[in-house]
Amino acid sequence: MRPTEICDRRERHVLDDAGLQALREAARLSPDNLPLRQHLAGQLLAKGYLAEAEAEYRAALVLAPKNADITAGLAEAFVRQSAHGAALAALEPLLASPGYPPRLGVLAARALFGEGDTARAGYRYHEAVSRDPSVADADLAARLSAPPAPLYATPETPPAAAAPAGETSAEVERSGLTFADVAGMDTVKEALRVKLLLPIQQPELFAAYGKRAGGGVLLYGPPGAGKTHLARAAAGELGASFVSVGLADILDMYIGSSERNLRATFELARRNRPCVLFFDEVDALAARRSDMRQAHTRQIVNQFLAELDGVDQNANEGVLVLAATNAPWYVDVAFRRPGRLDQPVFVPPPDAAARAAILRILCRNKPLAEMDFDAVARVTDHFVGADLKGLVDRAVEAKLQQSISAGRPIPLSTPDLLAAAKSVRPTAVREWMATARNYVMHANDSGAWDELMPWVKGKW
Q1: Would strands 241-245 and 343-346 be described as parallel, antiparallel, or unpaired?
Q2: pLDDT at residue 160 above 60?
Q3: Backbone phi, psi, residue 277, to 5°
Q4: Residue 29, exposed/middle/buried by CB under 10 A (0-12, 13-18, 19+)?
Q5: pTM (two decimals)
Q6: Looking at the structure, do residues 307 and 211 belong to the same domain, yes or no?
């Protein structure tokens, strides 16, 4: 049977359902009635009309773009149609927000499992269930716990053995960036220089005061502000090894494996010292233990703390730990104890001067006309580095099309960047600042977030 015939048959079934037909007619007459559209989408999903449910959820999202229930319904429709990438794309903006609804984590786990990413699926699932056991999915849990099936295995070609637990998949790199490649952020760069770099660059001076080379800094701020870029530049500035650690390098669905992976990662950094060991999204590995309901997730935090302390006072000498997070308030307070990640450093959104400097760096080595980067910076308020890179990429794509038609490179100009700025919207800075304001104003008894006070009281 052809796909069009299947669609026609399903449409006839919908039309045969008097209740659904009445709801669809009501939605047609009241297209802006959000509860009605959401109810219709839910009924279509419950009865298995997945494509029709997807269409209704899409229409509802136009009316309420940030509605978690509607997003969950759309993701469910995608997952049940095996459109796992589309489901993850729909969920991603909400998953990036602190404290997202746990049921969204389970949906993300189902989509990740469908794409074959079992490790990340296991993390998402266990993190969601630890916050709300009622969202548990027994079938998904059983599939995550089962050993993975071999791919394309035949008697003649047996599947390759999995890597032994405790062998990190993180790799040692050499960064080609330095602080000269980081526009603005002078205060942040100076904090990193004093805390991490100078003890290695001037060991005799620091040794006179009993200061050893090593330690940790927690970089925090809105998404896309350049925390990872800073970490790579710090390694390049020092000429040190660089080890970037993601969640997939550490987290494992089998109890005890995550702790062994974490230990192996620190051992890798110690063997390659001086080394900058960078943990991205560290709040997932260092979450508050009081929020965790399962013992094995608390054990990961305990192992992380033990590795930061080292087996002796010299264990981590020459290992500079940088961690980045968008949600520092979810990091366990024990990580801020002296000797661990004891210096939270705020990585702010760039001001106008920094935005102009970022644009200069992004546009270097490109054919340029006379440029007024300050003019572009003035119309890109609330843009972070990632937004500005997207702006330049869009302008370059448009200019490439012109160059292909002309048969020669046409220089990039200020009007090109200004035109691209009109079509690019800043990402999550406003939302992040709104969350930060809540913590600064209402959950800051310890004074941990005083550094954010001038920002949240300003124009944000």
Answers
A1: unpaired
A2: no
A3: -100, 110
A4: exposed
A5: 0.60
A6: yes
